[in-house]
Amino acid sequence: MNIAQLESHALAARRDIVSMIYESGIGHPGGALSIIDILTWIYNEEVDLTASPRARVVMSKGHAVAAQYAMLHQKGLIARSEFKTFRQINSRLQGHPSIKAIPEVDATTGLLGQGLSIAFGMAAAKKQRGETERVFAIIGDGEMHEGQIWETLQQAGHAKIDNLVAIIDYNGFSSHDPVNQVINLEPLADKVRHFGWHVLELQNGNDMHQVANTLCLSRYLKGKPIAIIANTTKGCGVSYMENNGDWHSKTPSTEQYHQAMEELQ
User: Residue 127 and residue 193: Cα distance in Å, rounded?
Assistant: First the structure.
Protein backbone atom coordinates (compact mmCIF):
# COMPACT_ATOMS: atom_id res chain seq x y z
CA MET A 1 0.00 0.00 0.00
CA ASN A 2 1.41 3.41 -0.93
CA ILE A 3 1.73 6.43 1.36
CA ALA A 4 -1.35 8.20 -0.02
CA GLN A 5 -3.48 5.11 0.59
CA LEU A 6 -2.15 4.74 4.12
CA GLU A 7 -2.85 8.41 4.82
CA SER A 8 -6.40 7.95 3.56
CA HIS A 9 -6.90 4.95 5.87
CA ALA A 10 -5.53 6.91 8.83
CA LEU A 11 -7.84 9.84 8.10
CA ALA A 12 -10.86 7.53 7.92
CA ALA A 13 -9.79 5.95 11.21
CA ARG A 14 -9.60 9.38 12.82
CA ARG A 15 -13.21 10.02 11.83
CA ASP A 16 -14.18 6.62 13.24
CA ILE A 17 -12.40 7.30 16.54
CA VAL A 18 -14.20 10.60 17.04
CA SER A 19 -17.53 9.12 15.94
CA MET A 20 -17.16 6.13 18.26
CA ILE A 21 -16.50 8.33 21.27
CA TYR A 22 -19.19 10.86 20.37
CA GLU A 23 -21.88 8.24 19.71
CA SER A 24 -21.17 6.32 22.91
CA GLY A 25 -20.60 9.42 25.04
CA ILE A 26 -17.32 8.26 26.56
CA GLY A 27 -13.70 7.52 25.62
CA HIS A 28 -10.09 8.66 25.28
CA PRO A 29 -9.71 10.53 21.99
CA GLY A 30 -6.34 12.25 22.54
CA GLY A 31 -4.10 9.20 22.77
CA ALA A 32 -6.06 7.29 20.13
CA LEU A 33 -5.58 10.09 17.60
CA SER A 34 -1.87 10.40 18.40
CA ILE A 35 -1.08 6.72 17.68
CA ILE A 36 -3.40 6.04 14.74
CA ASP A 37 -0.88 6.75 11.97
CA ILE A 38 1.53 4.19 13.36
CA LEU A 39 -1.22 1.63 13.90
CA THR A 40 -2.40 2.18 10.33
CA TRP A 41 1.04 1.30 9.02
CA ILE A 42 1.37 -1.75 11.28
CA TYR A 43 -2.05 -3.20 10.48
CA ASN A 44 -1.59 -2.72 6.73
CA GLU A 45 2.10 -3.57 6.34
CA GLU A 46 2.89 -6.05 9.15
CA VAL A 47 -0.29 -7.76 10.36
CA ASP A 48 -2.21 -10.29 8.26
CA LEU A 49 -5.18 -11.28 10.40
CA THR A 50 -5.88 -14.27 8.15
CA ALA A 51 -2.41 -15.79 8.66
CA SER A 52 -1.25 -18.24 11.29
CA PRO A 53 1.20 -17.60 12.79
CA ARG A 54 1.07 -13.83 12.37
CA ALA A 55 2.41 -10.57 13.76
CA ARG A 56 0.80 -9.41 17.01
CA VAL A 57 -0.17 -5.98 18.37
CA VAL A 58 -0.43 -5.39 22.11
CA MET A 59 -2.09 -2.13 23.11
CA SER A 60 -0.28 -1.63 26.39
CA LYS A 61 -1.90 1.82 26.54
CA GLY A 62 -5.25 0.04 26.46
CA HIS A 63 -7.35 3.16 27.05
CA ALA A 64 -6.53 4.16 23.44
CA VAL A 65 -8.36 1.06 22.19
CA ALA A 66 -10.70 3.13 19.98
CA ALA A 67 -7.75 3.37 17.58
CA GLN A 68 -7.42 -0.42 17.50
CA TYR A 69 -11.17 -0.84 17.00
CA ALA A 70 -10.98 1.59 14.07
CA MET A 71 -8.32 -0.64 12.51
CA LEU A 72 -10.37 -3.80 13.08
CA HIS A 73 -13.39 -2.05 11.55
CA GLN A 74 -11.33 -1.45 8.42
CA LYS A 75 -10.47 -5.15 8.40
CA GLY A 76 -14.17 -6.07 8.50
CA LEU A 77 -14.18 -7.43 12.06
CA ILE A 78 -16.26 -4.66 13.67
CA ALA A 79 -19.43 -3.22 12.15
CA ARG A 80 -19.95 0.53 12.15
CA SER A 81 -23.29 -0.07 13.87
CA GLU A 82 -21.33 -1.26 16.92
CA PHE A 83 -19.61 2.09 17.43
CA LYS A 84 -22.48 3.45 19.53
CA THR A 85 -22.02 0.51 21.95
CA PHE A 86 -18.41 1.47 22.73
CA ARG A 87 -17.75 1.09 26.48
CA GLN A 88 -21.35 0.10 27.16
CA ILE A 89 -22.37 -2.86 29.34
CA ASN A 90 -22.31 -6.18 27.42
CA SER A 91 -20.74 -4.57 24.34
CA ARG A 92 -17.88 -6.29 22.53
CA LEU A 93 -16.22 -2.88 22.35
CA GLN A 94 -15.05 -2.48 25.91
CA GLY A 95 -13.02 0.51 27.08
CA HIS A 96 -9.85 -1.62 27.12
CA PRO A 97 -8.97 -4.51 24.80
CA SER A 98 -10.43 -7.89 25.77
CA ILE A 99 -9.49 -11.06 23.89
CA LYS A 100 -12.61 -12.71 25.31
CA ALA A 101 -14.76 -10.30 23.33
CA ILE A 102 -12.51 -9.85 20.28
CA PRO A 103 -9.58 -12.31 20.00
CA GLU A 104 -7.97 -10.22 17.25
CA VAL A 105 -7.02 -7.47 19.73
CA ASP A 106 -4.29 -10.00 20.74
CA ALA A 107 -4.08 -9.11 24.45
CA THR A 108 -6.31 -8.03 27.30
CA THR A 109 -4.81 -4.87 28.75
CA GLY A 110 -5.87 -2.03 30.99
CA LEU A 111 -3.58 -1.75 33.98
CA LEU A 112 -0.78 0.43 32.66
CA GLY A 113 2.65 -1.15 32.47
CA GLN A 114 1.58 -4.74 31.84
CA GLY A 115 1.28 -4.78 28.06
CA LEU A 116 5.01 -4.71 27.34
CA SER A 117 5.46 -7.77 29.57
CA ILE A 118 2.75 -9.59 27.62
CA ALA A 119 4.36 -8.66 24.32
CA PHE A 120 7.76 -9.80 25.59
CA GLY A 121 6.28 -13.20 26.46
CA MET A 122 4.67 -13.49 23.04
CA ALA A 123 7.89 -12.56 21.27
CA ALA A 124 9.97 -14.99 23.35
CA ALA A 125 7.51 -17.79 22.56
CA LYS A 126 7.68 -16.98 18.87
CA LYS A 127 11.48 -17.17 18.96
CA GLN A 128 11.32 -20.57 20.63
CA ARG A 129 8.93 -21.84 17.94
CA GLY A 130 11.04 -20.42 15.13
CA GLU A 131 8.34 -17.99 13.98
CA THR A 132 9.59 -14.89 12.20
CA GLU A 133 6.65 -12.50 12.67
CA ARG A 134 7.18 -9.59 15.04
CA VAL A 135 5.29 -8.46 18.14
CA PHE A 136 4.48 -4.76 18.54
CA ALA A 137 3.78 -3.18 21.93
CA ILE A 138 2.14 0.24 21.89
CA ILE A 139 3.18 2.09 25.06
CA GLY A 140 2.07 5.47 26.36
CA ASP A 141 4.69 7.97 27.48
CA GLY A 142 2.88 8.37 30.81
CA GLU A 143 2.99 4.59 31.07
CA MET A 144 6.78 4.84 31.11
CA HIS A 145 6.38 5.96 34.75
CA GLU A 146 5.44 2.38 35.64
CA GLY A 147 8.21 0.24 37.11
CA GLN A 148 7.08 -2.90 35.30
CA ILE A 149 7.95 -1.27 31.99
CA TRP A 150 11.56 -0.88 33.09
CA GLU A 151 11.73 -4.43 34.43
CA THR A 152 10.66 -5.71 31.01
CA LEU A 153 13.03 -3.40 29.17
CA GLN A 154 15.83 -4.90 31.26
CA GLN A 155 14.79 -8.52 30.76
CA ALA A 156 14.05 -8.28 27.03
CA GLY A 157 17.33 -6.49 26.43
CA HIS A 158 19.21 -9.15 28.37
CA ALA A 159 17.48 -11.92 26.42
CA LYS A 160 18.09 -10.17 23.07
CA ILE A 161 14.49 -10.66 21.94
CA ASP A 162 14.90 -8.98 18.56
CA ASN A 163 11.40 -9.75 17.27
CA LEU A 164 9.93 -7.39 19.89
CA VAL A 165 9.19 -3.79 18.86
CA ALA A 166 8.15 -1.33 21.58
CA ILE A 167 6.60 1.84 20.23
CA ILE A 168 6.49 4.67 22.75
CA ASP A 169 3.75 7.17 21.90
CA TYR A 170 5.55 10.29 23.12
CA ASN A 171 2.69 12.79 22.88
CA GLY A 172 3.82 14.66 25.98
CA PHE A 173 0.74 14.31 28.19
CA SER A 174 -0.25 11.86 30.90
CA SER A 175 -3.93 12.41 31.68
CA HIS A 176 -4.03 16.21 32.08
CA ASP A 177 -0.44 17.06 33.00
CA PRO A 178 2.69 17.14 30.84
CA VAL A 179 4.50 13.82 31.23
CA ASN A 180 7.87 15.27 32.08
CA GLN A 181 6.40 17.51 34.76
CA VAL A 182 4.95 14.48 36.51
CA ILE A 183 8.18 12.44 36.30
CA ASN A 184 10.88 13.47 33.85
CA LEU A 185 11.65 10.66 31.39
CA GLU A 186 14.65 12.30 29.78
CA PRO A 187 17.13 11.32 28.51
CA LEU A 188 14.71 8.58 27.40
CA ALA A 189 16.58 7.32 24.32
CA ASP A 190 19.81 6.95 26.28
CA LYS A 191 18.08 5.12 29.12
CA VAL A 192 16.41 2.58 26.84
CA ARG A 193 19.58 2.12 24.81
CA HIS A 194 21.54 1.33 27.98
CA PHE A 195 19.05 -1.45 28.74
CA GLY A 196 20.30 -3.23 25.61
CA TRP A 197 17.82 -2.07 22.98
CA HIS A 198 18.13 -0.63 19.51
CA VAL A 199 16.51 2.80 19.67
CA LEU A 200 15.01 4.69 16.74
CA GLU A 201 13.69 8.20 17.24
CA LEU A 202 10.72 9.14 15.06
CA GLN A 203 10.65 12.91 14.76
CA ASN A 204 6.97 13.05 13.74
CA GLY A 205 4.92 9.95 14.40
CA ASN A 206 1.92 11.53 12.67
CA ASP A 207 3.74 11.88 9.33
CA MET A 208 3.16 8.72 7.30
CA HIS A 209 6.36 9.13 5.29
CA GLN A 210 8.41 9.20 8.49
CA VAL A 211 6.38 6.37 10.01
CA ALA A 212 6.98 4.17 6.96
CA ASN A 213 10.70 4.96 6.81
CA THR A 214 11.25 4.24 10.50
CA LEU A 215 9.17 1.06 10.67
CA CYS A 216 10.81 -0.27 7.51
CA LEU A 217 14.26 0.45 8.93
CA SER A 218 13.35 -1.41 12.10
CA ARG A 219 13.00 -4.64 10.09
CA TYR A 220 16.75 -4.68 9.49
CA LEU A 221 17.87 -4.29 13.10
CA LYS A 222 18.89 -7.59 14.63
CA GLY A 223 20.35 -8.93 17.85
CA LYS A 224 18.41 -6.66 20.23
CA PRO A 225 14.79 -5.68 20.81
CA ILE A 226 13.76 -2.43 19.11
CA ALA A 227 12.28 0.66 20.72
CA ILE A 228 10.79 3.42 18.59
CA ILE A 229 10.34 6.72 20.39
CA ALA A 230 7.58 8.33 18.36
CA ASN A 231 7.09 12.05 18.91
CA THR A 232 3.38 12.57 18.29
CA THR A 233 0.68 15.17 18.85
CA LYS A 234 -2.02 14.31 21.34
CA GLY A 235 -5.40 14.71 19.62
CA CYS A 236 -3.70 14.97 16.22
CA GLY A 237 -6.04 16.03 13.42
CA VAL A 238 -8.65 17.86 15.50
CA SER A 239 -7.54 21.42 16.21
CA TYR A 240 -9.17 21.91 19.60
CA MET A 241 -7.88 18.55 20.87
CA GLU A 242 -4.26 18.96 19.78
CA ASN A 243 -1.76 19.28 22.65
CA ASN A 244 -4.65 19.72 25.06
CA GLY A 245 -4.48 17.38 28.04
CA ASP A 246 -8.19 17.89 28.71
CA TRP A 247 -8.87 15.63 25.73
CA HIS A 248 -7.12 12.66 27.28
CA SER A 249 -10.59 11.52 28.33
CA LYS A 250 -13.47 13.67 27.14
CA THR A 251 -16.47 13.47 24.84
CA PRO A 252 -17.08 16.13 22.18
CA SER A 253 -20.32 18.07 22.20
CA THR A 254 -22.51 17.98 19.08
CA GLU A 255 -20.98 21.25 17.89
CA GLN A 256 -17.45 19.97 18.56
CA TYR A 257 -18.24 16.69 16.83
CA HIS A 258 -19.35 18.43 13.64
CA GLN A 259 -16.28 20.67 13.73
CA ALA A 260 -14.05 17.61 14.06
CA MET A 261 -15.77 15.87 11.15
CA GLU A 262 -15.31 18.96 9.01
CA GLU A 263 -11.61 19.18 9.88
CA LEU A 264 -11.12 15.47 9.14
CA GLN A 265 -12.52 15.56 5.59
Answer: 22
